[in-house]
Design a protein that fits this description.
The protein has 409 residues and is an alpha/beta fold. It is built from eleven helices and 20 strands. Strands 1, 2, 14, 15, 18 and 19 form a six-stranded mixed sheet that branches. A six-stranded mixed sheet has the order 11-12-13-16-17-20, sandwiched between helices. A four-stranded antiparallel sheet has the order 7-6-8-9, with helices on one face.
Length: 409
Amino acid sequence: MTMQKHTRKILFVSGALVFTAVVFVGGVYLGFTQRSYVSRITGIENSSAPAEISADFEPFWKVWGIIDRKYPGADAVSAQDRVYGAIKGLVDSIGDPYSVYFPPVDSKEFQDIIAGSFEGIGMEVGLKDRVLTVIAPLKKTPAEKAGIKAGDKILEIDGTSTDDMTVEKAVSLIRGPKGTAVKLIIYREGDSKPHEISVVREVIETPTLDEVLRPDGVYAISLYSFNASSDILMQNALQNFAASGATKLVLDLRGNPGGYLDSAVNIAGFFLPEGDVVVTEDFGKNGSPRAYRSKGYNLLDLKNTTIAVLVDKGSASASEILAGALSEHGVAVLIGETTYGKGSVQEVVDVTDTTTLKLTVAKWLTPNGVSISLKGLTPSIPVTVSAADVTSKVDPVLNRALEYFKTGK
């Protein structure tokens, strides 16, 4: 994945990435014995402590001293590594699974992930109830071919437990050179016990969009991600739809884990009138909300077009933004399973030259002010997909959409 500063928010579950600046205590002076916080920070190098803070740091220093005196391996852990551990604990204390502090080694791995490795197995993962979970296997990738499904819980990666593992660390373990295999211990809802899946890594090249005019006259567009080319590809597809003379459109967002925010907003503009709110970025007490609005490209004759948007538990972030906007503005009906529920915004902060903080700074709200986080979007026409449907390659969600086109309900 690539990014630009602030103007290019990335909404994959594994990280909505925006660069900004923030300050934190940059070092520790070990000779302090004073009890007050103010006296402690006086000797800290490059201190950027908040002007006002009410906290007793005495337990911190007391534990530091106990470790020095009693832990046999205390000399093997540098003072700076202890500070990194303390900062990690500070970030963990807010209880947000998407906020993570990266010390130097982990920070480099994270930056490598952002830069984009194209060798892996092709799936998006996230934390659901603090458990590492498959958001969606990407289309035509080793993960999909190996039978990995959205909602699978990943318990181990090559023998390493994923308990308390960050998404970024998991991605770094799953990715690797093509031709090598990664072994995953997977638990799937309904199974009696976990099972192992071995997947051979490949160079990942996934399609962005597929389109087809079906024999029954329904035009189907499948969008697999919101990347830099999604806007123009969707524009071309909608122009093909209009030229075909079809009046019924399926927009399939199942298994789409997200992508660029501006791509989602631009695509919404193909469907919505100018000025309609697509999504609102809610900063809570830290700032005024920001509404992203449709530019109103007027590509479709909406009065004579019926649209069904297909979603599932692998539809996340940018997919949820687009689906929520089209549904709440009455342009389309949502059909399928409840979506993933990734509605928060992360900023990536360079704390030092070698350490990084990824921090949640806002929530995404639908045009009606509903938070996408946690609960996701509930389709107005819910459809359950069974294991038997998958085995027999029956698509009850698409079939329900076709029924909706015939009956209007």
